[in-house]
Amino acid sequence: MVEKIQSSKVWYKEPWPWILMAGPIIVVFASIATYVIAQRTNSDLVTDDYYKEGKYISIQLERDNEAKKRNIHAQLLISPEFDAAKIFLTGDFDRQQPIDLLLIHPASKSLDQKVRLQMTPGTSGDKAEYTAVFKPLPRTQHWYVQLEDAAGVWRVEDKWIVSQGNALKLDPMSKLKAKEASAASAL
User: Fold this and answer.
1) Are residues 117 and 145 located together in one domain of the fold?
2) Are residues 111 and 132 in the same domain?
3) What is the residue-level pLDDT of the chain in tens, covering all 187 positions?
4) What is the domain count for the chain?
């Protein structure tokens, strides 16, 4: 019988060590790519100081109550290009006090905009007419819209669902009224 002498190959010429190392190498590259993506698209969804934010919410509710007492209502008409708005405001508010429009993106704080409204000349009666020009809004499903006086006494707000049109009505505490109604119907 003739014995066959096996010639042993060097390890790096064998396929199995490379196949076994491919998984961990792919995981290392994937984790580096994930880290880079996470750093570039930093999300503002979580706040670091939730206690301070909670106290701020309480202050905001006082402003909502003040708008309700003053019977402040607003109607917004947003341009088709999403870069301007016409606002009709009614209620008991100081017409000499500047008013701000806040357009709040649902997921990215960097896309939020705050615009000082310009009163339309010749406005009289119970409705005050304002205009606002802002940077074009990026397309998204919805925006949070707030109107507030510069002194921080009152505010009205609502959620604008873009697919439902470019007109929006802002009533004081509309979110709280909706919660109260749903709670009452559950009883």
Assistant:
1) yes
2) yes
3) 556 666 778 888 889 999 999 999 999 999 999 999 988 887 666 556 555 555 555 567 888 888 899 899 999 999 999 999 999 998 888 888 899 999 998 888 888 999 999 888 876 678 889 999 999 998 889 999 999 998 888 999 999 999 999 999 998 875 555 545 555 565 5
4) 2
2 within some domain: no
Domain residues for the domain of 60 are 50-186
31/117 same-domain check: no
CA 168/CA 126 separation, integer angstroms? 19
Q: Output the pTM of the full model.
A: 0.65
62 and 127 share one domain? yes
| CATH code for the domain in which residue 120 is found | 2.60.40.10
